[in-house]
């Protein structure tokens, strides 16, 4: 397979994936989305919950807006994670899946993405910094194995597709 074909295929996959995810998510009832997200986030943040690291979120709402797949929700903490559809958050984080995935896999720095305008933080700046620091403190190795392996594999796949998409991969397949 030539590099030109690989580049075109990678661009197509990168462009098609968010559309498929958006269509898939659009048929899932909102309550089910919130329930699944709550379970995933509770699993992912179990250590932080256990040690009271989310207590600063009591009475505060953080919105997460994943633009490219149309996923928008707010979360808070009051002894347990609370999730709801968007209403009026204290701070809003907006990005696309690739950026969020690379941050989660510790392959990209959120500050870099912020200055590149690939990550937007709007609202209560102090709360936003606390959330960002909490997320940066999560060790990938400390996550449950299925979550960790999924993040790692997806990040590697994404980086490979991006390298072919922008032509920086000079190998031919």
From TrEMBL:
Q: Which Gene3D superfamilies match?
A: SCP2 sterol-binding domain
Pathway, per record: Cofactor biosynthesis; ubiquinone biosynthesis
Q: Which domain of life is it from?
A: Bacteria
One Pfam family name is SCP2
Q: What are the alphabetically sorted keywords of the record?
A: Ubiquinone biosynthesis
Q: Which residues form the SCP2 domain?
A: 47-135
**Which SUPFAM superfamilies does the entry mention?**
SCP-like
Q: Which InterPro entries match?
A: SCP2_sterol-bd_dom (IPR003033), SCP2_sterol-bd_dom_sf (IPR036527), UbiT (IPR016830)
Its job: Required for O(2)-independent ubiquinone (coenzyme Q) biosynthesis. Likely functions as an accessory factor.
Tell me its family: Belongs to the UbiT family.
- Tell me what this protein is called: Ubiquinone biosynthesis accessory factor UbiT
């Amino acid at each position: 397979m030539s590099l030109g074909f690989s580049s075109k295929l990678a661009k197509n996959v990168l462009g098609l994936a968010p559309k498929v995810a958006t269509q898939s998510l659009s048929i899932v009832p909102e309550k089910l989305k919130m329930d699944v997200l709550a379970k995933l986030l509770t699993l992912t943040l179990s250590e932080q919950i256990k040690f009271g690291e989310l207590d600063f979120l009591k009475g505060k709402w953080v919105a997460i807006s994943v633009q490219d797949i149309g996923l928008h929700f707010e979360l808070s903490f009051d002894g347990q994670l609370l999730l709801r559809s968007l209403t009026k958050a204290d701070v809003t984080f907006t990005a696309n899946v690739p950026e969020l995935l690379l941050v989660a896999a510790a392959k990209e720095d959120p500050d870099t993405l912020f200055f590149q305008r690939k990550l937007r933080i709007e609202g209560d700046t102090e709360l936003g910094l606390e959330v960002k620091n909490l997320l940066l403190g999560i060790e990938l190795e400390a996550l449950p194995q299925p979550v960790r392996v999924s993040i790692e594999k997806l990040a590697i796949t994404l980086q490979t597709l991006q390298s072919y998409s922008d032509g920086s991969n000079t190998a031919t397949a």
